[in-house]
Amino acid sequence: MAEEPMSPVPLPEGTASDTTGSRGSRLLGVLTLVGLAALGVLAFVLTDPDVRIHPSTGAEFGQFDAVRMLYVHVPLAVMTYLAYGLCAVASLGVLIRRTPWWDVTAHAAAEVGTVFCGLVLVTGSIWGRPVWNTWWEWGDVRLMTTLVLFLMFAGYLALRRTTGDPRAVSRRAAVVALVVVLDIPLVNRSVEWWENRTLHQQSTLGDLKIEDLTLFTLMLGFLVLGMVLAWLLLHRFRVGWLERAALDHSVAAAIAERRGETPDEELRRAVGDSPAAREGFDENDRDGDPEAGRP
Fold it and tell me: Average pLDDT for residues 218-228, to the nearest whole number?
């Protein structure tokens, strides 16, 4: 039984002048910039450093100013989970519905999620240098599972760029995404399941160990980074949709042009453009029998 192809994406009128922006996306962008500025002030200026006093010795200890990076690092990690989760849901939609909307959504979510995952690794290293006295710890199970997640989705994006039947590439990528997201629970629960093989601390938010301005700043970080995620997903989806529409339009135009060729043009394409072919074609044309030169 023949497979049902994905529906073609219509090319919008005036595509050359179209952009990925809209009034709503521009408003979201402005609000996101304001939120990022507010988060920067709160996280890196107004909140207090993590300084505690040892009850026995009276010495100061804690994460000090390094704790400020967590107001960005933790929300980035959660947004990575959300983006990759959306990619998995959309990939399931690709396998079931086989429509361009699900396919473009899966690709957009994977790209944005991989950017966020890379930032998680970078900000985590910046935080870990003063706290752990090292930029990277190969034995840390959370670090390694996060790195594996990043590399596997990088492979997913490479698969999306391979040549071949677009429908087959979409299906293969969807299967890969559904397998790769199984690493997310390992990343999230690694500090509980392998607590002796990680330098990461367990969650302080779930136990309500933070409060006041610290809690407010962290919540603002979730909100603002969520807005960044939404803005990037929106624009990446529109770019992907226009790319697919342009591809479908160019294929349709090529087919229409091919069907509109005259018999003489088809003959020239069939016999080639060599001098001998042109001479044979011209002789057949002079004899009034254009079909005589066809192979």
Answer: 96
Virtual CA dihedral for 22, 27, 30, 33, nearest 10 degrees?
-90
Flag whether 205 is in a domain: yes
How many domains are there within the chain? Answer: 2
Quick one: 234 and 121 in the same domain? Answer: yes
d(CA 56, CA 64): 19
How far, in Å, CA of 3 to CA of 48, rounded?
A: 61
Do 187 and 201 lie in one domain? The reply is: yes
Q: At CA 124, angle to CA 45 and CA 135, rounded to 5? A: 110
- Residue 182, number of CB atoms within 10 A of its CB: 11
**Torsions phi, psi for 70 (to 5 deg):** -70, -20
Alpha-carbon 126 to chain mean position? 23
Do 210 and 218 meet the contact criterion of CB atoms below 8 Å apart?
A: yes
pLDDT of 243-274, one tens digit each?
888 776 766 666 666 676 555 555 455 555 55
For residue 15, being part of any structural domain is answered with no
What amino acid occupies position 235?
H
Say yes or no: 153 and 245 in one domain. Answer: yes
Q: Are residues 149 and 62 in the same domain?
A: yes
Confirm whether 13 is domain-assigned.
no
Tell me the average pLDDT across 86-112: 95
pTM of the model: 0.77
Mean pLDDT confidence for 80-109:
95
**Does 294 have pLDDT greater than 50?**
no
Confidence of residue 194 (pLDDT cuts 50, 70, 90): confident
Residue 275, domain extent: 262-295
